[in-house]
Amino acid sequence: MAVLGRRSVSGAFFRPRSDSCPWCGSREIRHRITVVDTRQGKPGAFGMDECTGCGHLFQNPQLTEPGLAYYCRDVYDGLGREHYAAMARRSRAAHRKRVRAAQATSPKRWLDVGARQGHFCHEARMMLPGTEFWALDPSPEILAAAERGWVDSASRTPLVEFAEAHRAEFDVVSVIHYLERTTSPQRELDSVREVLRTGGVALIELVNPQSRFARLYGKYWYCWMAPQNLHLMPWRNLCLLLEERGFAVSRVELGAANKPFDTMAALLTALNYHLPPAKSWPWLSRPVRLPARLFRKVALTFAMPALGFALALDLLLQAVISRGQGGNTYRIVAVAR
């Protein structure tokens, strides 16, 4: 997998390289880190640059829409569907925290953008049975969520297009780990404001690029989510943008939004990157033979005590991190003016 991860991808997958920050326009940018697809082992190496002025991190050069679709494919649907579903089912507590952050508005209609398989909406509607839940996601999995009754209405329409036909129709719009994967977070926030009624609430959750674990674990930091994450915004930058876009920021959760898995996830990511792949995935250049698969299973078995210790360390650190500002995630609640 290591060799595959360092191979280059066709130039048709990338936009021209940028020589300025897409957030503030500054030309004072520097290379921060090169990351690879450590989850699926799809080929390619992806540079993340950092603006020395505003601190914005961005993929440079950035993937095109076809490139982004290629790397997102089989993560939430297709071959990766069941794996993602299993992980999402273990996130019920996090989903409930998100709902509580915005439910004081007693929403009648809630739009979840980037809903993936609809697990958040499924949990949220159990807490808010009188609320109508709409969901947007490019994956066909969101249509299946509507068929299961997890959402009231589902669409694969991009938010920017959806907003043109649904102005001021929603009381809450949640964008949970969605803005990172968009080519223009600014334009997406304009659309969020457009679909919200005045007084409505935007619930936003993002990776925190200022987390100390980002530097500590380097390319194995789980939250890079390479190459899906195109933009990583410091929370102060986003608060300023929200104010400019017609919002009043009412709540910012930093350490309280942390997900206690950095150490364990970094170790597991490193193992997944260096060990032979679990299967002969279609994007691999050669099949994975039985001896390689057995070696992977044995190695992971021997690594279980270390993974258990890493998780215990994460849970212990959570008591400190949750009271500070250095978590791996931040959450913002903003009211549309």
UniProtKB/TrEMBL annotation:
<keyword id="KW-0472">Membrane</keyword>
<dbReference type="Pfam" id="PF13489">
    <property type="entry name" value="Methyltransf_23"/>
</dbReference>
<dbReference type="GO" id="GO:0008168">
    <property type="term" value="F:methyltransferase activity"/>
</dbReference>
<keyword id="KW-1133">Transmembrane helix</keyword>
<keyword id="KW-0812">Transmembrane</keyword>
<protein>
    <submittedName>
        <fullName>Class I SAM-dependent methyltransferase</fullName>
        <ecNumber>2.1.1.-</ecNumber>
    </submittedName>
</protein>
<keyword id="KW-0808">Transferase</keyword>
<dbReference type="GO" id="GO:0032259">
    <property type="term" value="P:methylation"/>
</dbReference>
<keyword id="KW-0489">Methyltransferase</keyword>
<feature type="transmembrane region" description="Helical">
    <location>
        <begin position="298"/>
        <end position="321"/>
    </location>
</feature>
<dbReference type="InterPro" id="IPR029063">
    <property type="entry name" value="SAM-dependent_MTases_sf"/>
</dbReference>
